[in-house]
Amino acid sequence: MGILRAELILARGRIRTLGRAGLNPQSHLAIAGGKVLASGGREVMNLRGPRTRVVDLGGSAVFPGFNDAHAHVVYHGLTRFAADLSGARGIDDVLDRLKAHAASLKPGEWQQGLGYRTDELTERRQPHRTELDRATGDRPAFIDERGGHARVANSAALAAAGIASDTPNPQGGRIGRDLNGSPNGSKVS
Description:
This protein is of the alpha/beta class. Helix content is 17%, strand content 35%.
């Protein structure tokens, strides 16, 4: 059996690998079969074969893959500006939190609430747009269920978005409607 040869060598870089000591700086990285074969200094070049592609990094940086395990990073960032609805136990609790949050907003500024879960609400249903209207008035507002897959907008937000009874469902989603066909404010994707 021959010596394993690298398919790709990244050379002369600032390569950071994860290990027991944390982000260890290296200058060379060898890859074969989609996996890291070796990392280190110039000695990694000993894994070069006749078909090995060598990329001279010229000091550029290489970092380990940072994989998002479905963490909704942007959603988390939005929580810094929205009403915190996590742990809400009922629709009245959601509405009270929206009213309190509104005091921090400028007139006409859109309001957002994030983090409630329908299955944790005593009503076991999404709030209706008219319920949100009671807490938000004519300020456009919408709330997101934790995970971001369900939303409810108030009447002002629906009007601002041009959503009416005759608005078709968006691709990949559904506009929630009352029995008479008028939007109830919910959208599920």
